[in-house]
Specification:
Layout: E1 6-12, H1 19-27, E2 33-40, H2 46-51, E3 56-60, H3 65-75, E4 80-83, E5 89-90, H4 94-104, E6 109-120, E7 123-131, E8 139-142, H5 145-149, H6 160-170, E9 175-187, H7 203-219
Parallel strand pairs: 1-2, 1-4, 2-3, 6-9
Antiparallel strand pairs: 4-8, 5-9, 6-7, 6-8
Helix pairs in contact: 6-7
Length: 221
C-alpha cells in the first residue's frame, strides 16, 4: 500500500451472519482498499467465513471493539483508515465520497451521516432521520490522527468511539462534514449494545473523564 490508500478495518465478534456481507460491501465501494478483519475471540463460524475472502485476517482473544480496532490500526498500511462493524453497511459510493473529501481538504477526518435501521426477520426498517454521531463507521480518518489523539481506550467495552471523538475534539482535530448518509447502522437482537441502559454503555464514565481532562488542562494554563 502506498500514499493515498485506504485500509478498512472490520472488527467482528460472533458475526458469521453478517461478515460476508460486510466484506462484500467494502469490495463494492469501487476503489482499491486493504481489508483487515479482526476476529475478537469469536466462538462461531467467523473464522470460516473470513477464510473465504482475500483479506488480512487477525485473531485475538476477546477484548472488545476498542482493542479490535486498535489491532486493525496497527496492522494498517494505508494513509487512510476506515472502520466498518461487521453487522453494519456503507451506502453505495460512501467510501469514495469520504475519500475524495479528505483528498480535497486538509482535514483529519471526513464525517458523514448515519441512518439507524432496525432488523427484524431479515427486513430492515429505518428509525428516525439521518444524523451525525460518534459511530466511527461514518468517518474516514487520516491514519496520522491516531498519533495525535491516541488509540481507542481498551478499558471501555462500550462508548469507546464517543470517548475517542471527545479526545479528538480536545486535540483540535479538524473535521470536514459530509451531508450524505454513508452508514447504515443496524440495530438487532444480537447487537452488543441492544437494550442496554446508559450506565451499562459507559457514557457517564466517558463524560466524567472528559470533564476531568478539561479541568486538568485549565488548571495547567
Amino acid at each position: 500500500m502506498g500514499d493515498g490508500m485506504v485500509s478498512v478495518v472490520i472488527p467482528v465478534y460472533n458475526g458469521e451472519r453478517f461478515l460476508a456481507g460486510a466484506i462484500e460491501c467494502v469490495r463494492g465501494q469501487d476503489m482499491p482498499v486493504e481489508i483487515i478483519v479482526v476476529n475478537d475471540g469469536s466462538t462461531d463460524g467467523t473464522a470460516r467465513i473470513a477464510a473465504g475472502f482475500d483479506v488480512q485476517y487477525i485473531e485475538q482473544k476477546n477484548a472488545g471493539p476498542a482493542a479490535a480496532r486498535n489491532c486493525g490500526i496497527q496492522a494498517a498500511r494505508g494513509e487512510f483508515v476506515a472502520f466498518l462493524d461487521a453487522d453494519d453497511s456503507w451506502t453505495p459510493g460512501a467510501l469514495p465520497l469520504l475519500y475524495n473529501r479528505l483528498q480535497a481538504t486538509h482535514a483529519d477526518i471526513a464525517h458523514g451521516c448515519m441512518q439507524c435501521v432496525r432488523m427484524e426477520n431479515d427486513c430492515e426498517y429505518p428509525i428516525g432521520l439521518p444524523r451525525r454521531s460518534t459511530q466511527v463507521g461514518s468517518m474516514l480518518f487520516r491514519r496520522s490522527v491516531f498519533g495525535r489523539v491516541g488509540l481507542f481506550n481498551e478499558t471501555l467495552r462500550y462508548s469507546e468511539d464517543t470517548d475517542w471523538c471527545m479526545r479528538a475534539a480536545d486535540c483540535g482535530v479538524s473535521i470536514s462534514i459530509v451531508d450524505d448518509v454513508v452508514l447504515m447502522y443496524r440495530i438487532h437482537a444480537l447487537s452488543t449494545t441492544f437494550g442496554r441502559a446508559a450506565d451499562e454503555l459507559s457514557i457517564v464514565q466517558v463524560l466524567r473523564s472528559a470533564i476531568e481532562r478539561r479541568q486538568a488542562e485549565n488548571n495547567n494554563m
